[in-house]
Amino acid sequence: MKYITLNNNVRMPQLGLGVYLVSNEEVVDVVTHAFQVGYRSIDTAQFYENETGVGRAIEQSTIPREELFITTKVWNSHQGYDKTLQAFEESIEKLQLEYLDLYLIHWPTPMYDRYVETYQALEKLYKDGRVKAIGVSNFHIEHLERILDECEIPPVLNQVECHPYFQQKELKSFCNKHNIYIEAWSPLARGEVLADKTINQIAEKYEKTPAQVILRWHIQEKSIIIPKSVTPSRIHENINVFDFELREEDMDEIAKLDRNHRTGRNPNEMDML
Ligand SMILES: NC(=O)c1ccc[n+]([C@@H]2O[C@H](COP(=O)([O-])OP(=O)(O)OC[C@H]3O[C@@H](n4cnc5c(N)ncnc54)[C@H](OP(=O)(O)O)[C@@H]3O)[C@@H](O)[C@H]2O)c1
């Protein structure tokens, strides 16, 4: 596993397991298997309704707590200062944790304009030692600028949709300038990029799978990644991306695949509560 150092000096695995759309029951075995093959970072959310199962897998494992890196997120309906503090208590109780490694605002939902006070609640949790790092998700540059202007503690990362068909070049450059990591959600575009011709040609050349080539591209782009899989062989395959390096010409070929194709929502249009 490779680690990166966040802007507050906390170390984080560059690759973790995402568990969106995995049920509370199934997630126990999935996370347990991931721990067995070397994953140490898990990305869940209040919205995924599987924090209890993730907590059970952590409780059953013998891995020391300080080796794990657990992320969860406050959902849109719980934005606002007091509601966020309450959501945090509920999440941490379900996860059965004393502290959280990373707490994120799931979506900015700018039409409700509560993300600044929500972030201030995250700052309080950070100052109180309840979380090791705080950040955001699905934030556009203009949302990040408000956080940087109106809050004290810069986010350590911005978790956004990012993959070869939606490369987020402008946001990456802004975040890079401000020492904010990009964490790529749907790093495989939910499977949509796996059949891509260029990706398959590169995969053949390196004798790797298309998923491994895409994940390796993210790693070399210096993004944090959280591929999701419930399939044991794929969970294993996805973590095995640290024993090869893509040459510059292949990185350039993948850069050309960018086509502004989202699999998820534009954050400015997200209105779900
Ligand atoms: N912050 C946000 O708003 C947000 C939004 C979306 C996602 N996320 C996070 O990001 C994580 C990953 O995103 P995602 O789940 O949307 O998409 P993803 O990781 O890009 O793709 C997951 C899909 O690809 C399949 N897959 C995984 N590894 C594979 C492999 N090696 N070969 C072939 N197929 C493979 C999985 O199938 P199987 O599971 O059947 O193996 C699943 O259908 C989520 O779980 C969640 O933690 C965050």
How would you describe the overall organization of this protein?
This protein is an alpha/beta fold and 273 residues long. Helices cover 38% and strands 15% of the residues. The protein has ten helices and ten strands. The strands form two sheets. An eight-stranded parallel beta sheet has the order 3-4-5-6-7-8-9-10. Helix 2 crosses helix 3 and helix 7 crosses helix 8. It starts with a strand and ends in an 18-residue tail after the last helix. The mean pLDDT is 98. Bound molecules: NADP nicotinamide-adenine-dinucleotide phosphate. The site of NADP nicotinamide-adenine-dinucleotide phosphate (NAP) has 27 residues, from helix 9.
Q: Helical content, roughly?
A: 25-40%
Q: Residue ranges: pLDDT <50 for 5 or more in a row?
A: none
- Biggest beta sheet summary: 8 strands, parallel
Give the number of helices: 10
Catalogue the ligands: NADP nicotinamide-adenine-dinucleotide phosphate
Beta-strand proportion = 15-25%
Distance between the termini: 36 Å
H/E series: EEEHEHEHEHEHEHEHHEHH
* Strand segment tally: 10
Mean pLDDT: 98
Q: Outline, from the CA principal axes?
A: globular
Q: Structural class of the secondary structure composition?
A: alpha/beta
Radius of gyration from CA coordinates: 18 Å
- Strand order, sheet with most strands: 3-4-5-6-7-8-9-10
